[in-house]
Amino acid sequence: MVIVMKTTATNDDVKNIERLLKRLDLGAHISEGEERIIIGVIGDKRLLDGVPLELMPGVDKLVPIVEPYKLASRTFDPEPSTIEVGESQIGGKKLTIVAGPCAVEDEEQILKVARYLKSQGIDFIRGGAYKPRTSPYSFQGLEEEGLKLLAKARKETGLLVVSEVISTEFLDQAVEYLDVIQIGARNMQNFQLLREVGRLKKPVILKRGLASTIEEWLNAAEYIMKEGNYDVILCERGIRTFETYTRNTLDLSCVPLIKELSHLPIIVDPSHGTGKGNLVIPMSRAAIAAGADGLMIEVHPDPKSALSDGPQSLDFDGFSELMGEVAKIAQVLDREI
Fold first, then answer.
1. Are residues 181 and 106 in the same domain?
2. Does 220 share its domain with 94?
3. pLDDT digits over 203-213, tens only?
């Protein structure tokens, strides 16, 4: 349920409702719009049976939330959310670029990428330390050593670190090193992991599952938010279809749909979405044109020698070209990069 306050409502009116909800063991999420305040009620709405909320001072109307994903819905928070990470922000006018190698391979590689990204004005570096690969014989990542190398890159360059956590077993270890936790496609419905991440006060990038509907994806975000962590960024990374030429089918129609259904920011990963380096730049342009709040791009000093996902990675020249192309689209849409 959402409580819409009158434009004339005072701070005392809002606080009175917060106190009432607290007495009933219900939570309250306050959203301050340009014209009025909206209060999202968190918890079992049956506890409000018989409570004349609509008669309380400052209340304009009550709006039920019919979507199964309550906290992630536009009804709950009609204003687009922005996620603060350090001094950076995801969502809003500025586009966010998260870039780096698929996997952290060694110190020389990750520091070389970090220094290059810093020179390009990028705020976030990504790199896999735990690699859930399709084949058990493929490179599985450096695990904690990889996280330490990412932390070393952050110390030298100031870049914010993003990396995937694949199970609750590694969560405490990973949180020590990361600025943003990534939940990968294979773990989108790992509900225990989602709950544990929801209890942390750390931003989360939640990738769409390999064959997940938009509603399933938003419900996965709900698992995180229900535990108290509202700092969720959605990431479209392609879904599995009958098409075999590309690694996945990048569903860019989900970007405007998410904007309509949810207040959460959404970024797009065209690297995993296509699996082909030559498609990353055109699909990046298309993603920004569709309204995405940013991109996740795989970058490697020498993609041909990469231990993971080389064919979909850009080299430094390719990434510089991408930044120039995306800047053109951003300017048309009055967004910044």
1. yes
2. yes
3. 999 999 999 99
